[in-house]
Design brief:
Radius of gyration: 17 Å
Shape: globular
CATH superfamily of the largest domain: Ribonuclease H-like superfamily/Ribonuclease H
Number of domains: 2
Structural class: alpha/beta
Strand order of the largest sheet: 3-2-1-4-5
Oligomer: single chain
């Protein structure tokens, strides 16, 4: 799996742009990817988007940065070196949609699978398998990223979000949910909450 986190200028892949990509090769966690780009010409910047990812408008329009097309092409090349190119993450359908749309916009092949693995669903299943009711607020699942990180026993991801940080935290969460194992040395000091609990 390629644990992927994209930072964006908004939520619509047709209107907004990728501004950075962070990724971790789950089968070889020392393989990591992080790059930034400028937004494509004409891309919109949604109110509040830059507060989430910490970029400034000047940074995401910097003419010296690589283009979105160059970034996704570089990411695809890196991802295809993994033994499993399945994208996984907190909101992987959004990341896949942006990557696919960026590839289409740049007239380059989208070489990755459309299927993805969603951290939210994995965590929801893990909680229910332990006989616990997942948290719900206003009639919806309340398993956001911060709640998931607390559940798996690691600190919440620092804010504003950084794509590589996101991928690292998500990779560690996947490892704990799937295998009850620590993956990354950055999180080795944090115990897995359910490790010694009998269900």
């Amino acid at each position: 799996m390629i644990i992927t986190d994209c930072e964006l200028s908004g939520v619509d892949a047709n209107l907004h742009s990728i501004v950075s990509i962070g990724a971790v090769d789950f089968s070889n966690a020392e393989r990591r990817f992080y790059e930034e780009c400028k937004i494509w010409k004409g891309a919109h910047i949604m109110d509040g988007a830059l507060e989430v990812n910490g970029f400034t408008e000047k940074e995401i329009t910097d003419p010296l940065k690589k283009t979105e097309a160059e970034l996704v092409e570089e990411f695809f090349k890196w991802a295809l070196e993994s033994e499993n190119h399945t994208i996984a993450g907190q909101n992987p359908s959004t990341d896949v949609d942006f990557l696919r749309t960026a590839a289409h916009r740049a007239h380059i092949n989208f070489p990755l699978a459309y299927r993805s693995l969603d951290l939210h669903s994995m965590c929801y299943l893990h909680i229910t398998e332990r006989g616990v009711t997942p948290p719900v607020e206003k009639g919806r699942s309340a398993l956001n990223s911060d709640t998931i990180m607390k559940y798996v026993g690691i600190p919440v991801e620092p804010h504003p979000h950084n794509a590589l940080n996101g991928a690292l935290y998500e990779a560690e969460a996947f490892s704990r949910l799937l295998y009850s194992k620590n993956l990354l040395p950055e999180f080795a000091k944090y115990p897995i909450p359910w490790k010694n609990i009998k269900i």
